Amino acid sequence: GQEEAQEFLSAFNIESSLLDRVIKRSFAASDLISFFTIVENEVRSWSITKGTSAIDAADLIHSDMKKGFIKAEVLPYDTLAKYGNFSEAKKDGHVKLEGKEYMVQDGDIIKFRFNV
Known about the structure:
Layout: H1 2-11, H2 18-29, E1 32-39, E2 42-49, H3 54-61, H4 63-67, E3 69-75, H5 77-83, H6 86-91, E4 96-98, E5 109-114
């Protein structure tokens, strides 16, 4: 399983699997980045090109989100990792409200506010 694979990599001082490295290099070469959405207990990853605005990222998920876009609640991945969950990071003021023009950054966790 996952634990055995990590132990194997650690035993040989390998930080990440070949597959992980291939994926990262492929993303870098093709100007792709990832952002994440969290709905209840489901986390989903989305791939977009660098320079994609929040409203276009919302459209990727569903056209109704673009039509009724209000704001995007944005939390960088590193901050989420530090706090452990979105709510705690939000309580400490680390979640930013961004508008349509916000350029999504690699690793952003986004909750889209919209009204249909």
